[in-house]
Protein backbone atom coordinates (compact mmCIF):
# COMPACT_ATOMS: atom_id res chain seq x y z
CA UNK A 1 0.00 0.00 0.00
CA UNK A 2 1.71 3.17 -1.26
CA UNK A 3 0.05 6.38 -0.08
CA UNK A 4 -0.04 9.87 -1.58
CA UNK A 5 -1.48 13.27 -0.65
CA UNK A 6 -4.32 14.33 -2.96
CA UNK A 7 -6.13 17.61 -3.49
CA UNK A 8 -9.52 17.16 -1.75
CA UNK A 9 -11.19 19.16 -4.52
CA UNK A 10 -10.38 16.35 -6.97
CA UNK A 11 -11.89 13.69 -4.69
CA UNK A 12 -15.08 15.42 -3.55
CA UNK A 13 -16.97 14.95 -6.88
CA UNK A 14 -16.36 11.19 -6.47
CA UNK A 15 -17.83 11.03 -2.95
CA UNK A 16 -21.35 9.55 -3.03
CA UNK A 17 -24.30 10.96 -1.13
CA UNK A 18 -24.29 10.48 2.65
CA UNK A 19 -20.53 10.17 3.22
CA UNK A 20 -17.65 12.64 3.56
CA UNK A 21 -13.89 12.61 3.12
CA UNK A 22 -11.95 11.07 6.01
CA UNK A 23 -8.74 13.07 6.45
CA UNK A 24 -5.45 12.02 8.02
CA UNK A 25 -3.99 14.93 9.99
CA UNK A 26 -5.91 17.34 7.78
CA UNK A 27 -4.84 15.79 4.46
CA UNK A 28 -6.73 13.67 1.95
CA UNK A 29 -4.86 10.50 1.02
CA UNK A 30 -5.10 8.13 -1.90
CA UNK A 31 -3.53 4.66 -1.85
CA UNK A 32 -2.25 2.38 -4.58
CA UNK A 33 -2.87 -1.11 -3.23
CA UNK A 34 -1.73 -4.49 -4.51
CA UNK A 35 -3.51 -7.62 -3.26
CA UNK A 36 -3.13 -11.32 -3.84
CA UNK A 37 -6.49 -13.04 -3.32
CA UNK A 38 -6.38 -16.71 -2.39
CA UNK A 39 -9.13 -19.37 -2.17
CA UNK A 40 -11.86 -16.88 -3.11
CA UNK A 41 -15.49 -18.01 -2.82
CA UNK A 42 -18.70 -16.33 -3.93
CA UNK A 43 -21.73 -17.18 -1.74
CA UNK A 44 -19.56 -19.94 -0.29
CA UNK A 45 -18.87 -21.52 -3.68
CA UNK A 46 -15.37 -21.61 -5.22
CA UNK A 47 -15.34 -20.70 -8.91
CA UNK A 48 -12.91 -22.90 -10.90
CA UNK A 49 -9.88 -20.99 -12.25
CA UNK A 50 -11.03 -17.82 -10.44
CA UNK A 51 -9.98 -18.52 -6.85
CA UNK A 52 -6.45 -17.08 -6.79
CA UNK A 53 -5.72 -13.79 -8.53
CA UNK A 54 -4.06 -10.40 -8.23
CA UNK A 55 -5.78 -7.04 -7.79
CA UNK A 56 -4.37 -3.52 -7.90
CA UNK A 57 -6.63 -0.66 -6.90
CA UNK A 58 -6.55 3.07 -6.32
CA UNK A 59 -8.67 4.11 -3.35
CA UNK A 60 -9.34 6.98 -0.97
CA UNK A 61 -10.90 7.31 2.46
CA UNK A 62 -14.33 8.42 3.64
CA UNK A 63 -16.56 8.17 6.69
CA UNK A 64 -20.28 8.10 7.44
CA UNK A 65 -21.97 9.10 10.66
CA UNK A 66 -24.54 6.64 12.04
CA UNK A 67 -26.40 6.40 15.37
CA UNK A 68 -23.75 3.87 16.43
CA UNK A 69 -20.89 6.24 15.58
CA UNK A 70 -18.64 6.84 12.59
CA UNK A 71 -18.19 4.16 9.98
CA UNK A 72 -14.85 4.56 8.24
CA UNK A 73 -14.69 3.31 4.69
CA UNK A 74 -13.10 3.52 1.26
CA UNK A 75 -14.10 4.50 -2.25
CA UNK A 76 -12.35 2.90 -5.20
CA UNK A 77 -11.30 5.00 -8.16
CA UNK A 78 -10.44 1.90 -10.18
CA UNK A 79 -9.81 -1.77 -9.43
CA UNK A 80 -7.74 -3.91 -11.78
CA UNK A 81 -8.07 -7.71 -11.91
CA UNK A 82 -6.72 -10.23 -14.42
CA UNK A 83 -9.96 -11.87 -15.60
CA UNK A 84 -13.02 -10.47 -17.32
CA UNK A 85 -15.40 -12.70 -15.33
CA UNK A 86 -14.09 -11.35 -12.00
CA UNK A 87 -14.50 -7.76 -13.16
CA UNK A 88 -18.02 -8.41 -14.45
CA UNK A 89 -19.12 -10.15 -11.25
CA UNK A 90 -17.76 -7.36 -9.07
CA UNK A 91 -19.41 -4.67 -11.18
CA UNK A 92 -22.70 -6.56 -10.93
CA UNK A 93 -22.54 -7.20 -7.17
CA UNK A 94 -21.16 -3.87 -5.99
CA UNK A 95 -21.23 -1.49 -9.01
CA UNK A 96 -17.50 -0.98 -8.46
CA UNK A 97 -15.18 0.37 -11.23
CA UNK A 98 -13.41 -2.87 -12.16
CA UNK A 99 -11.14 -3.28 -15.17
CA UNK A 100 -9.70 -6.55 -16.52
CA UNK A 101 -6.04 -6.51 -17.65
CA UNK A 102 -3.26 -9.10 -17.87
CA UNK A 103 -1.52 -9.14 -14.48
CA UNK A 104 1.45 -10.69 -12.70
CA UNK A 105 3.12 -10.56 -9.31
CA UNK A 106 6.51 -11.36 -7.82
CA UNK A 107 7.17 -11.99 -4.13
CA UNK A 108 10.50 -12.83 -2.49
CA UNK A 109 11.82 -12.67 1.06
CA UNK A 110 12.45 -8.94 0.71
CA UNK A 111 10.53 -7.57 -2.28
CA UNK A 112 6.93 -7.45 -3.45
CA UNK A 113 5.79 -6.36 -6.92
CA UNK A 114 2.47 -6.29 -8.79
CA UNK A 115 2.25 -5.65 -12.52
CA UNK A 116 -0.58 -4.98 -14.97
CA UNK A 117 -0.58 -4.52 -18.75
CA UNK A 118 -2.55 -1.48 -19.89
CA UNK A 119 -2.37 0.94 -22.82
CA UNK A 120 0.29 -1.14 -24.54
CA UNK A 121 2.79 -1.39 -21.66
CA UNK A 122 3.48 -3.04 -18.34
CA UNK A 123 2.91 -0.93 -15.24
CA UNK A 124 4.11 -1.87 -11.77
CA UNK A 125 3.75 -1.21 -8.04
CA UNK A 126 6.59 -2.48 -5.86
CA UNK A 127 8.41 -2.07 -2.55
CA UNK A 128 11.01 -3.70 -0.35
CA UNK A 129 10.64 -4.86 3.25
CA UNK A 130 12.72 -6.44 5.98
CA UNK A 131 12.39 -7.86 9.48
CA UNK A 132 9.13 -9.01 11.05
CA UNK A 133 5.66 -7.44 10.75
CA UNK A 134 4.17 -5.74 13.82
CA UNK A 135 0.63 -5.02 14.97
CA UNK A 136 -0.72 -1.64 13.96
CA UNK A 137 -0.20 1.03 16.59
CA UNK A 138 -3.21 2.85 18.01
CA UNK A 139 -3.61 6.21 16.29
CA UNK A 140 -0.82 5.49 13.80
CA UNK A 141 -0.78 6.24 10.07
CA UNK A 142 -0.79 2.48 9.46
CA UNK A 143 -3.98 2.09 11.50
CA UNK A 144 -5.68 4.89 9.59
CA UNK A 145 -4.81 3.33 6.24
CA UNK A 146 -5.76 -0.24 7.10
CA UNK A 147 -8.64 0.12 9.54
CA UNK A 148 -11.43 1.09 7.14
CA UNK A 149 -14.03 -1.66 7.20
CA UNK A 150 -16.74 -0.29 4.90
CA UNK A 151 -16.99 0.24 1.16
CA UNK A 152 -19.13 2.90 -0.49
CA UNK A 153 -20.15 3.31 -4.09
CA UNK A 154 -22.52 5.54 -6.06
CA UNK A 155 -25.23 3.53 -7.78
CA UNK A 156 -26.55 4.24 -11.26
CA UNK A 157 -29.63 6.02 -9.88
CA UNK A 158 -27.46 8.38 -7.81
CA UNK A 159 -28.06 6.65 -4.46
CA UNK A 160 -25.28 5.20 -2.29
CA UNK A 161 -24.54 1.56 -1.49
CA UNK A 162 -22.64 0.46 1.61
CA UNK A 163 -21.02 -2.92 2.22
CA UNK A 164 -18.97 -4.29 5.08
CA UNK A 165 -15.49 -5.82 4.87
CA UNK A 166 -14.48 -8.04 7.78
CA UNK A 167 -10.96 -9.12 8.72
CA UNK A 168 -8.84 -9.18 11.89
CA UNK A 169 -6.31 -6.45 12.61
CA UNK A 170 -3.31 -7.02 10.39
CA UNK A 171 0.38 -6.98 11.13
CA UNK A 172 2.43 -4.90 8.75
CA UNK A 173 5.91 -3.91 7.69
CA UNK A 174 6.94 -0.35 6.88
CA UNK A 175 7.91 -0.69 3.23
CA UNK A 176 11.10 0.77 1.77
CA UNK A 177 11.87 2.15 -1.70
CA UNK A 178 8.25 2.14 -2.94
CA UNK A 179 7.93 2.53 -6.70
CA UNK A 180 4.98 3.18 -8.98
CA UNK A 181 5.88 2.98 -12.65
CA UNK A 182 3.75 3.29 -15.76
CA UNK A 183 1.25 5.53 -17.52
CA UNK A 184 -0.98 6.75 -14.70
CA UNK A 185 -2.54 9.43 -16.91
CA UNK A 186 -4.01 6.82 -19.26
CA UNK A 187 -5.42 4.87 -16.34
CA UNK A 188 -6.59 7.56 -13.91
CA UNK A 189 -6.44 10.92 -15.67
CA UNK A 190 -4.07 13.89 -15.38
CA UNK A 191 -5.06 15.08 -11.89
CA UNK A 192 -4.52 11.70 -10.26
CA UNK A 193 -1.35 11.12 -12.29
CA UNK A 194 0.06 14.38 -10.95
CA UNK A 195 -0.48 13.28 -7.34
CA UNK A 196 0.83 9.76 -8.00
CA UNK A 197 3.94 11.24 -9.60
CA UNK A 198 5.02 12.87 -6.33
CA UNK A 199 6.94 11.13 -3.58
CA UNK A 200 4.62 8.98 -1.44
CA UNK A 201 4.03 9.98 2.19
CA UNK A 202 4.15 6.37 3.41
CA UNK A 203 4.20 2.76 2.27
CA UNK A 204 3.25 -0.45 4.08
CA UNK A 205 3.13 -4.16 3.42
CA UNK A 206 0.54 -6.27 5.28
CA UNK A 207 0.63 -10.01 5.74
CA UNK A 208 -3.12 -10.32 5.09
CA UNK A 209 -5.74 -12.68 6.54
CA UNK A 210 -9.10 -14.26 5.87
CA UNK A 211 -11.57 -11.64 4.60
CA UNK A 212 -15.35 -11.56 4.16
CA UNK A 213 -17.08 -8.98 1.96
CA UNK A 214 -20.77 -8.79 2.78
CA UNK A 215 -23.65 -8.03 0.47
CA UNK A 216 -24.30 -4.32 0.17
CA UNK A 217 -27.30 -2.29 1.28
CA UNK A 218 -28.52 1.21 0.55
CA UNK A 219 -27.63 4.25 2.63
CA UNK A 220 -30.85 5.98 3.64
CA UNK A 221 -31.21 9.72 3.87
CA UNK A 222 -28.29 12.08 4.32
CA UNK A 223 -26.06 9.76 6.33
CA UNK A 224 -27.80 8.98 9.62
CA UNK A 225 -29.68 5.85 8.61
CA UNK A 226 -28.39 2.36 9.20
CA UNK A 227 -28.04 -0.43 6.68
CA UNK A 228 -28.93 -4.09 6.82
CA UNK A 229 -25.70 -6.02 6.24
CA UNK A 230 -26.30 -9.60 5.23
CA UNK A 231 -24.18 -12.74 5.14
CA UNK A 232 -20.85 -12.73 3.29
CA UNK A 233 -21.12 -12.58 -0.49
CA UNK A 234 -17.39 -12.99 -1.12
CA UNK A 235 -14.88 -14.65 1.17
CA UNK A 236 -11.16 -14.98 0.58
CA UNK A 237 -7.75 -14.84 2.15
CA UNK A 238 -5.30 -12.18 1.05
CA UNK A 239 -1.73 -11.01 0.97
CA UNK A 240 -1.16 -7.32 0.36
Automatic annotation (TrEMBL):
Residues 216-240 are annotated as: Disordered. Residues 227-240 have a biased composition (Polar residues). It comes from the Bacteria. Pfam families: DUF2071 (PF09844). InterPro entries: ADC_dom_sf, DUF2071. This is DUF2071 domain-containing protein.
Amino acid sequence: MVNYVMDPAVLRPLVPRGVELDLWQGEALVSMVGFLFLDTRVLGVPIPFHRDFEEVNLRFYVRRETPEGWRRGVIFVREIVPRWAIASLARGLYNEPYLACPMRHHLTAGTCEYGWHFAGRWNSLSAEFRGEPVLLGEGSAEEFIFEHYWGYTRLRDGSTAEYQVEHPRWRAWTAENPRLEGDMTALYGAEFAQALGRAPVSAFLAEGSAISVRKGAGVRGGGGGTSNIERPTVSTSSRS
